[in-house]
From TrEMBL:
<dbReference type="InterPro" id="IPR021027">
    <property type="entry name" value="Transposase_put_HTH"/>
</dbReference>
<dbReference type="Pfam" id="PF12323">
    <property type="entry name" value="HTH_OrfB_IS605"/>
</dbReference>
<feature type="domain" description="Transposase putative helix-turn-helix">
    <location>
        <begin position="1"/>
        <end position="44"/>
    </location>
</feature>
<protein>
    <submittedName>
        <fullName>Transposase</fullName>
    </submittedName>
</protein>
């Protein structure tokens, strides 16, 4: 017999804000990585590795003033967004 459980979370307003920030940053990183991969494909360049893609859309992006806010969330969330992109 298999059991199934349902869970529901009720985050506080501050937790809700932190989750929204993390999800938003993950979306931006995913979209930036997708754009880099599409540009490389259109230019006829080889597939960009996971490590190189992380360097471009995470490490280098955090150094720019336009994307400095990416450093405010956990790096694990951003790295997982890049891994999800490569899995897709």
């Amino acid at each position: 017999m298999q059991l199934r459980y349902n869970y529901r979370l009720y985050p506080t307003p501050s937790q809700r804000q932190a989750l929204a920030k993390a999800f938003g940053c993950a979306r931006v990183v995913y979209n930036d990585g997708l754009r880099v991969q599409q540009d490389a494909h259109a230019a006829g360049l080889p597939y960009i590795s996971d490590a190189e893609l992380q360097r471009r859309v995470l490490t280098e992006a955090k150094k720019t003033p336009e994307r400095a806010w990416l450093a405010e969330v956990s790096a694990v969330v951003l790295q997982q967004a890049v891994a999800d992109l490569n899995a897709a």
